[in-house]
Each structure stands twice: as structure tokens, then as C-alpha cells.
Write a structure and sequence with these properties.
Strand order of the largest sheet: 1-2-3
Strand content: 5-15%
Number of domains: 2
Largest sheet: 3 strands, mixed
CATH topology of the largest domain: Alpha-lytic protease prodomain-like
Radius of gyration: 25 Å
Shape: elongated
Order of helices and strands: HHHHHHHEEHE
Helix content: 55-70%
CATH superfamily of the largest domain: Cation efflux protein transmembrane domain
Mean pLDDT: 84
Low-confidence stretches: none
């Protein structure tokens, strides 16, 4: 198992276990503590369990080696999994919004004060998990892991909104029982916004959007270190899962033989793959210098 895959799998299991544990806590505390906002938060955590399982599946499948039907590998499954995670987020936001509106119109008791202590702990845990996954993903660069990280951040946001709503209800007393429901309704808007932030880069990845100027510049600099390379022309980058596929036009002396040009291109490819381990393959087209 590659180091990137190992990190991604480890982080995915962290998400699954933490989401499962916190979902149970939220359901129990929300039910017995009369907090509809906490129950809405539990709904999101429950969907998070399934989305984290999907992310784990996507990571495992995306790392399959190239085969006859998939010569470029299976990495494009990752942004597709990200779209599914976004769909879970949107569904969570809609369910929370509908539930909150219904609860606002239904008289109910003020939440118990002890729910605040649970919420404070949940906010801290979720934010720490979000930061941990984000740090790990700087090395892995997985769109689905980035989506999973934002799932934890959105969970922390809904918990924070519930904390504020319950605090208002407890402080102001009768007549403000629905404050935590309003907080949950506002939190659903934040979740939708986060869903867009996750969706946009995944869409760019599936469409092979040009967003890799830094990597291209690094490729051009490294190319000039190979003897026989006079320069580079076109350079296109595509992201597939956690790796990159490069199309590069190489400029060599126009008077050398085809065999010599072929040898230079192979040396360049080996040099790039060695210096930039995030690259999985390089396709080089040889151009004669004018």
C-alpha cells in the first residue's frame, strides 16, 4: 500500500468511527435533553457515516492500477465520490431545514442545560478532526478527503449554532424555546455553502480545469536539468485521484537522430517521476528546435 493511500485509509477510518460515536451521543442527548437542534445535528452525523464509508470505498478503488479498460487508472472515481458526498451534505441541509421549520411551529420544552456541555465537547472534537484531516490531505491531495474534512467542519458549525440557540433559550427562558431550532435552520444555510465549496474544485478536477501553474513551473525547471533538453513548450496537467498525468512537449536539437531524441525524452521522464512522486505518468512529445 502506498504511503498516500495508507494515510487516506487511516483518516477515513477516523471519520467513520468518530461520526458513528458522535451520532449516537447526539441522538441520545438531543432526545433526553429536549434539543431539536441537537437532533438535527445527529441527522447530519448519521449521513456523515455513510459518506465517510463512500470516501473509504472511493480511495480503495481509485488506487487500483491501470488495466486494459482503464489505461489511465481509476483515479477519476474520487471526484465522483466527492459529488456523492456533496449530495449527502445537501440532503442533510434540506432535512435539517424542514425539521427546524416544523419544530419552530410546534410548542416544546426548553432544552436541558447539560446539553451545552456535550455540545462544547462535540464542537472541539469535530474541529480537531477537521484540522487533522486537512493537515494529512496537504500531502495526499484527495478531493474526496477534502470533502470529508468539510463534513466535519460543517458538523462543528451546526453544533456551534445549536450551542448558541440553546444558550439563548436557557438565558431568556419561556417564549424562546425555539431558539435552538432557529439556530439549526441558520446552520443548514452554512452547510449548503460548504457543499458548494467542496463541489467546485471536484468539478474542476473532472473537467481537467487548468489550475496547476505552480506544478507546471516546477516541471519546466526540472526539465532543464536533463542533458540535451533545450526547453519545453506545451505542458498540460490532469489530476487523477491523488496523482497527476502530464503531457509535455520537449524541445531538442533538430539535427540529432530519432534515437537520441527518444533517449533524452526517456531520461526526462525518469527524472520527473523521481523528483515529483505525485506524478504517475508523463507523455512526452519531442519537438525540434527552430
Amino acid at each position: 500500500m502506498s504511503s498516500k493511500k495508507a494515510i487516506a485509509v487511516q483518516v477515513s477510518w477516523l471519520s467513520i468511527v468518530s461520526n458513528f460515536t458522535l451520532a449516537i451521543i447526539k441522538w441520545l442527548v438531543g432526545y433526553f435533553g429536549n434539543s431539536y437542534a441537537l437532533i438535527a445535528d445527529a441527522i447530519e452525523s448519521t449521513t456523515d457515516i455513510f459518506s465517510s464509508i463512500l470516501v473509504l470505498f472511493g480511495i480503495q478503488y481509485a488506487h487500483r492500477p491501470p488495466d486494459k479498460n482503464h489505461p489511465y487508472g481509476h483515479g477519476k472515481l474520487e471526484p465522483l465520490i466527492t459529488f456523492t458526498v456533496v449530495a449527502f451534505l445537501v440532503c442533510s441541509a434540506v432535512v435539517i431545514a424542514i425539521t427546524s421549520i416544523g419544530n419552530i411551529q410546534t410548542p416544546h420544552q426548553i432544552p436541558e442545560s447539560y446539553t451545552l456541555y456535550f455540545l462544547a465537547g462535540i464542537i472541539l472534537i469535530k474541529e480537531l478532526i477537521y484540522r487533522q484531516i486537512k493537515i494529512k490531505n496537504k500531502h495526499v491531495k484527495s478531493s474526496s478527503l477534502a470533502a470529508d474534512a468539510w463534513h466535519h467542519r460543517s458538523d462543528a458549525i451546526t453544533s456551534a449554532a445549536a450551542f448558541i440557540g440553546i444558550s439563548i433559550a436557557l438565558y431568556l427562558g419561556p417564549g424562546y424555546e425555539a431558539a435552538d431550532d432557529w439556530a439549526a435552520l441558520i446552520a443548514s444555510g452554512f452547510i449548503l455553502y460548504n457543499a458548494y465549496l467542496i463541489f467546485r474544485p471536484a468539478l474542476g478536477e473532472i473537467m481537467d480545469e487548468h489550475v496547476y501553474d505552480d506544478l507546471i513551473e516546477e516541471i519546466r525547471i526540472l526539465s532543464m536539468q536533463v542533458p540535451g533538453v533545450l526547453g519545453t513548450e506545451k505542458c498540460f496537467v490532469r489530476k487523477s485521484g491523488m496523482h497527476y498525468l502530464i503531457d509535455l512537449h520537449l524541445i531538442v536539437n533538430g539535427t540529432i537522430t530519432v534515437h537520441e531524441g527518444h533517449s533524452i525524452s526517456h531520461k526526462l521522464k525518469s527524472h520527473l517521476l523521481e523528483e515529483l512522486p505525485q506524478i504517475s505518468d508523463v507523455l512526452i512529445h519531442v519537438e525540434p528546435a527552430e
